[in-house]
Specification:
The protein is α/β, with parallel strands linked by helices. The chain has 2 domains: 135 residues, Aspartate Aminotransferase, domain 1, CATH 3.90.1150; 233 residues, Aspartate Aminotransferase, domain 2 (3-Layer(aba) Sandwich). It has a 7-stranded mixed β-sheet, with helices on both faces. Strand 8, helix 9 and strand 9 form a beta-alpha-beta unit. The longest helix is centred in the C-terminal third of the chain and has 21 residues. The chain is globular and about 55 Å long. It starts with 7 loop residues before the first helix and ends with a helix. Bound molecules: pyridoxal-5'-phosphate. Pyridoxal-5'-phosphate binds next to helix 5.
Amino acid sequence: MSHSPLDWLADELSSLDAAGLRRRQRVVRSLGGGRCEVDGRTLWDFSSNDYLNLANDPRVIEAARSGSSSHGTGARASALVCGRTEWHERLESRLAAFEGAEAAILFPSGYAANVGTIGALVGEGDVVLCDRLSHACLVDGCRLSGARFRVYPHADVDRLDRELAKHATARRCLIVTDGVFSMDGDLAPLPELCDAAERHAAMLLVDEAHGTGVFGHSGRGAAEELGVENRNLIRTGTLSKAIGAQGGFVTGSRDLIDWLWNGARTQMFSTALTPAMCAAACAALDIIENEPQRREGLAEKSGQLRSQLAANGIEVPPKSRGPIVPVILGDSRRCTEVAARLEEQGFLTGCIRPPTVPRETARLRVSVTAQHPDEVVSALAAAIAEAALKRTAIGD
Ligand SMILES: *Cc1c(COP(=O)(O)O)cnc(C)c1O
């Protein structure tokens, strides 16, 4: 038997299997209207972040098509090397106007926007503080930055305040947080975070990945919802969730954006977004602005699912709001089983396990979209209760 230096991979994969943590890929086709096709079966899709159903909107698809026809499929190189198209420039202005900011910059993804921005703002000799439940890309950005990295307990502004006081002599301090927590659906305490940041002259970065298009009167996110848009915020976002396209962005002051053009490595050393995606995102932003009924419908559906789950005896974390509805089951294998049972009944849900969430908090992450029919939302609530409570009754 010859040994390969990669033999350990098979052992590691078996351990993941044994712990119910192995991830498997599958081929899915989004059909629009909150449905998708998996292995030839049509399912109701409660696993996606396409909250406003824009990824299959004919107007957004047509915009992508015309972006490619007029400017080609690829962006050719990093925007700093070979320039960017008028679609990129238009989208930057569009995003800045949408968020009422001086300027915006695009990134290849939301992940890249966060990692690159944190690294451009802090480094050795600085301090970065991160909410414990923030998205992995904020954590990775903090680690890669080289700044001293501190994690504060979820939404605990008092602890953050004490931590900031300890680092009064640091060159710069940066606080980073999800605006809407991606696996919990609650909003960060942004007014209190802004106050703490001001008290300690710290910078505050809010990741609006799940806020854009969903929260706030005009869909501008958690910052709008909580009335802190005129505070000194650095807002990062993604084009890949409610906007239905792909890519990331940051909005803020002209100086901030100019600095990111000069210092954000994930922007400088990665090829620019495709013209098609910029055109698609512009079209989606038009729809978000002109069709507030989508956002209102989404809020209604989210409320409906929450109350019907409660009526069926299923608890949802009380602070969660909006379309992200977590049903915490604890054990990873049990979560996989419940998700599989729901799938048999025609519902695709997110089965979220560590390391995405803390140990023993595996959960179904159910995400509602604007176009899920009422009766389907009701049927899902009943099916979740059936699948989740049945297992408990048997006692695992
Ligand atoms: C999805 C997500 C991202 C990453 O965005 P992509 O565009 O998918 O790379 C960043 N932050 C949060 C909170 C997210 O949920």
